[in-house]
Design a protein that fits this description.
about 350 residues; TIM Barrel; four-stranded mixed β-sheet; 10 helices; 15 strands; binds zinc ion
Length: about 350
């Protein structure tokens, strides 16, 4: 989350490793202390015991001092973890919801994807339902799609209907984000495909050329995440990176990294295409949990009217709640502005320059 140390170990990783070792040492010291104090007759300790019988008081004092030092060290590291978390976590001071819709690519030239619901008949009602309430979502777009049957990369630029649909939504205020290069996690056909700099950088450039806008948000395909990919995504200039491994939103310098969104629709079993979903009351439970709620949906999984109906009911509930629905980029701008304002306030009150 915070600046990387040599060997791609983050500062928080280091703290967590240290705190584990120190805690183990504390336990060992307590056991030693107990053995020496109680003069326990364990075979393994017999030699120490003979020695400690003579110098029991001195040994007790030494171990006690070591224990105290360790406890102080442990508290210190715990405090460092806490303050690191405080200084890097994104503070959300009001109820905000982000809607993320994933998997927009060339659906015209990959016919075998049709049976998974990659059709406009399924895509359009989802965005229509969101628009009905005046909400806007962020759409995860990939410049290519890997066709499993032909083992080819099919470019988005050849699906004019999809481009027109996305352009229309973009004009209406929807945000277009990048969702990987070709959405392939097949380790034989595209190993490390999403991670490499060339694909992250060129993918972004190609999308920006197609839509003539800047891409600021990135979501890893399949929610699969590596440090290499993260570093390349940051280097490519993305401002906000969603669906990662963090439990809540964090700052990494001026980049915001957010947790995985809540997806109420899941693939049931492995043998058939069977998408099931949790009832909208559960969506509301999840929504109520925290100030920042990220709803992650895949329009291709809306294969029944019941699912669409639950989305509608959920959005109706949200509409009546005191919440602001934002795209990822709008969230980034809102938080960055808040951070700036706070800095200005500090310099005015306490003469601390930004
Ligand atoms: Zn996806």
């Amino acid at each position: 989350m915070v600046g990387l140390l040599p060997g791609s170990l983050t500062l928080s990783d280091l703290y967590y490793i240290l705190v584990g070792y120190v805690f183990a040492l504390i336990i060992i010291s307590i056991i030693l202390l107990y053995i020496v104090k109680k003069k326990l007759d364990i075979k393994f300790w017999k030699k120490i015991l003979n020695f400690s019988k003579k110098k029991n008081k001195e040994i007790f004092k030494i171990i006690l001092v070591i224990l105290l030092i360790l406890i102080i060290l442990y508290s210190g590291i715990r405090f460092a973890i806490y303050s690191l978390d405080q200084s890097t976590s994104v503070k959300v001071d009001k109820k905000i919801m982000i809607i993320e819709l994933d998997d927009y690519w060339n659906i015209e030239d990959v016919e075998n994807y049709e049976r998974y619901g990659y059709t406009f008949d399924q895509f359009i009602p989802v965005t229509d339902t969101i628009s009905k309430y005046g909400f806007r979502a962020t759409l995860g777009v990939t410049p290519y799609i890997f066709d499993e049957s032909t083992k080819e990369n099919i470019p988005l630029i050849e699906d004019q209907q999809m481009i027109d649909y996305l352009k229309k939504l973009s004009d209406e205020g929807y945000e277009l984000g990048m969702h990987g290069y070709n959405h392939c996690r097949n380790q034989y056909h595209c190993p490390k495909y999403e991670e490499v700099w060339f694909n992250v950088y060129n993918g972004k450039r190609e999308l920006e050329n197609i839509f003539n806008i800047q891409f600021n948000s990135y979501f890893p395909p399949g929610n699969y995440w590596t440090t290499e990919q993260y570093e390349n995504v940051k280097r490519a200039g993305f401002k906000i990176i969603g669906n990662t491994h963090v439990p809540k939103a964090y700052f990494d310098s001026d980049v915001i990294i957010t947790q995985k969104g809540y997806d109420p629709i899941y693939h049931y079993g492995w043998h058939a295409i069977d998408f099931r979903h949790t009832p909208y009351e559960e969506w509301i439970d999840e929504y109520e949990k925290d100030n920042l709620f990220i709803l992650q949906l895949h329009p291709n999984t809306f294969d029944t009217l019941e699912k669409l109906d639950d989305l509608d009911k959920f959005l109706a509930y949200v509409k009546n709640d005191d919440v602001q629905v934002m795209t990822y980029k709008e969230f980034y701008d809102y938080i960055s502005q808040k951070k700036k304002d706070k800095g200005v306030q500090l310099s005015a009150k306490g003469n601390i320059k930004q």
